[in-house]
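Structure representation:
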Amino acid sequence: MIETLLAEIPLYAQPALFNIYFAVASLPIGFVFAVLLALGKNSKGPVVRRLCSAYIYAFRGSPLFIQFFMFYSIMLALNAVWWRPMGISWLMMNPLFIGPLALVMNTAAYSAEILYGALRTVPKGELEAARAFGMTPFQVFRTVTWPNTIRVAWPAYTNEVVFLFHSTALVYFTLPVINAQRDILNTAQNLFERDFNAFLHFSVAALWFLAITMVIFFVFGRVYERMMRHIPTERAISRPRLRFGPKYIR
C-alpha cells in the first residue's frame, strides 16, 4: 500500500502547477482590487461607498461555484458577438483566463471586507497627530493608515489566501478541460474512473493540497513576523519562588 501511494504522488506534480498558477495569477490583482474596494467602502462619498459595499455583498453572498458558471456563460454568450470576430476567442474562452478572472473577482470581495475591518481599527489619535504634523493625505495613508491596516489584516488575509488556493479545485470542476490542462482534483477524478480506488487517489490529492497549504502558511507567517519585528516579544511571567537566606529575611 505504501509503495502504491509513493508511486502515485509524482503523478500530481504537473497538475499541481495549474492550481498554483490559478492562485498566483489571482492574488496580486485581487489584492490591489481589494485595497481599492476597502478604501471605497470606507470613503465619505455615499455613491462610491454604496457601490463598493454592493459589490462586496454580491460576491460574498453568492457561491464561488455559481460565479464560475456565471463568468463562463457570459464569455460563451459574447463569443460569437465579440471574441470570435476579434480573433481572441482562444484566450477569452480558455479556463486559464476565465479561472483567474473569477477568482480575482471573488477574492477581491473577501479581502476587501478584511481590509475594511482593519481600516476601522486604525487609531484616530495617530491620524490626528499625522495631520497636525502637516502630512499630506497620501503621507498619512503611507505612514499611518496602511502599516496599521496591513498588520491587523494579515492573519485573516493569510486564511483567505489558503481558501483561494483550495478554491482552485473548482476551476476544472466547472469549466471545460482543454487538452492536458488537468489540476489536482481533475487528475484524481480521472484516476478514480480507471479503478474506482477513491481512497488512494483522493488521499494523494489531499496530501498535495495539504503540502502546498503548509508552504503558504510558512511564507505568510515569515512575512507577518517581518511586519511585527518592531514589537518586542512578550516576556514569560515566571512563577514566584520562595527564597531563603540572610538577604531575604527582614
